[in-house]
Amino acid sequence: MSDTSYTPLPQSNQAYAEAPAVTNQSRPIRAQSVWVGVVLPLAAAVLLAAAQPFWSAYLSDLVVKIMILSIFALSLHILVGGAGLVSLGHAAYFGLGAYAAVKAAGQDGSNFLVMLGAAVGVSGLYALLVGALSLRTKGVYFIMVTLAFAQLAFFVVHDVGYFGGSDGIYLMQRPAIGALDMESSSTQYFVVLAALVLVYAFIAMLRHSRFGHALAGIRVNEQRMRAAGFATYGYKLAGFVIAGALAGLAGFLLAARDAVVNPELLAWHHSGEVLLMLILGGVGSLRGAVLGTITFVLLKELLSTHAIVGNAADHWQLTLGLAIIALVALLPKGLVGINDKWQKKAAARTGQSPEAVEQGGDHG
């Protein structure tokens, strides 16, 4: 037998020899993360802005509706995708924000900032109250408590004459500030688009902050986070209030768009719908929240249109339910799960491990 001894490389040479392998894997991963997490959302926003003059009145109104509901879904994402808190009462903050905005409007004119502040403030305060009590429970009890508080708010606005009863209340003049007047459909479009971009960017930065990492840790193992010295109740309550305030922002935008609010905005099925949007898109993903909203609204619109599906439009709730069941069965990880499959195929082609590619991909 020949004596073959192994002589290790010097540390600097060894590092140099291993560096290309690490760099070759990390570069495409980082590039993919920047592309999916930053470039793609910005490109979509620019495309939406550029396309506005070409939309018909119907399509422009539909896109505005989708963008408002996307903000609503992103606000719930802070709880569900961030802290792992499934709330069935999120529509309460959405509806209260809309009501507060209309009530804050003056008789002689509707000030944009006053209405916005009222919507965000009232929704945030109610979220603080609900969160302070409901976060003392867990699991299904937490879900039921949030639902109970939402139903409480629903019956208050439904039965109290101050809120217009079942008919709701009308906004006599849409909000304006300076040259910005929401009476213009194009102004509505760009204001809502700007709000969506800002909310998306805010939540993305929140996810990568110490606060966001703490919420993620609570979602994974709250007991371990408490053992590490984190005041988990305070973090969850702060996330609850932020989520409620952003839902109030979406409510304000909807009130400015429709110029009317009614108790149906607070109904429990709206909380269920926004939760479905997150599930369709992919729980835990910012892009998923937006994609799920687009999918849900378009499915609802298409399946309820006689010109497209004929007499089946009379039973659109049934066909919508079947379509959602099919999508969830085929895509258990939501629409963003399609990207995971592409990542695994890319990993197989480049020789990288699928785990490394998934870690590098941006799930926001």
Question: How would the global form be characterised?
Answer: globular
Which spans have pLDDT < 50 for at least 5 consecutive residues? 1-31, 356-363
Order of helices and strands: HHHHHEEEHHHEHHHHHH
Largest sheet, spatial ordering of strands: 1-4
Number of helices: 14
Radius of gyration: 24 Å
Secondary structure category? mainly alpha
Task: Give the end-to-end Cα distance, rounded to a whole number of Å.
Answer: 57 Å
Q: What profile does the largest beta sheet have? A: 2 strands, antiparallel
Number of strands: 4
Mean pLDDT: 84
Q: Helical proportion?
A: over 70%
Short synopsis of the structure:
The protein has helices at 11-51, 57-83, 91-104, 112-134, 139-159, 185-207, 210-227, 232-258, 268-281, 286-303, 306-309, 316-330, 337-350, 354-360; strands at residues 169-170, 176-177, 180-181, 260-261. With 364 residues, the chain is mainly α.
What does this structure look like?
The chain is mainly α. The protein is 73% helix and 2% strand. It contains 14 helices and four strands. The chain has helices spanning 11-51, 57-83, 91-104, 112-134, 139-159, 185-207, 210-227, 232-258, 268-281, 286-303, 306-309, 316-330, 337-350, 354-360, and strands spanning 169-170, 176-177, 180-181, 260-261. The protein has a two-stranded antiparallel sheet. A hairpin with a 2-residue loop joins β2 (176-177) and β3. α1 crosses α14. The longest helix is centred in the N-terminal third of the chain and has 41 residues, at 11-51. The termini are far apart. Residues 1-31 and 356-363 have low confidence and may be disordered.
